[in-house]
Amino acid sequence: MAVRKFKPITPGQRHKVISTTTDITTSVPEKSLLAPKKRSGGRNNTGKMTVRYIGGGHKQRYRVIDFKRQKDGVPAVVKSIEYDPNRTARIALLQYPDGEKTYIIAPNGLSVGQSVVSGPGAAPEVGNCLLLAEVPLGTVVHAIELYPGQGAVMARSAGSYAQLLAREGKYAILKLPSGETRMVLTTCRATVGVASNVDHGLESHGKAGRRRHLGRRPRNRGVVMNPVDHPMGGGEGRASGGHPRSRTGLLAKGYKTRAKKKASSKFIVSKKKK
Questions:
Q1: CATH of domain 3-201
Q2: Measured between alpha carbons, how far is 189 from 147 in angstroms, rounded to an integer?
Q3: What pTM was estimated for this model as a whole?
Q4: What is the percent of the chain where pLDDT is above 90?
């Protein structure tokens, strides 16, 4: 993967940096794996705006992703690598010998025609889904389950991965993308490799219009509002706004929001980086 920069022949292209699409093999998604996606515009069931800065955008359809990978021991062939408007990573279309098709999050390096397999006894190769008990130490994995059979919930975005550091009894110790080191049951599944589109973090939209196509409206800073609208608003001239905080008064910049007595805290070996 690489990024593509543009010559500044228009104001919108001056700062535009996007990922190349050389890894994408088709622009037509699998029709049987599409689902409707309703937009809320940030409104709840009574029409009240509960989340601001959301609305508009291009019409999208959801791609049904197989996060569980429970068709064990059956090799599937990669038919295509596709763009997914609902996530930053690419997705791969798999076809099983019985004709069933599923989408998975495509790992970096997966190519069309390659065969992948899941379940106990699978080789620790890119795209294969294994139990953490069978993954060699030091291997990088993504799309990790938190509880057996739950489906992948961790390390799913573009370029993210976790590293298997050790195993202690029934737990595997993983270093997560946040820097946190955490214990996960060895009976949980993970996919070998790094999630695709690793250069996503280098992208720059270049103009407001590209953000609007994604359904994101202009975001006002708190310091330019009035005191009635935001805790950081008001003041004469260009006031700094005081301590950084949210619209509801929750402190930003280092204030810990994790519950002190959260049950899963006992599985965290070391906390994430500040």
A1: 2.40.50.140
A2: 9
A3: 0.91
A4: 94
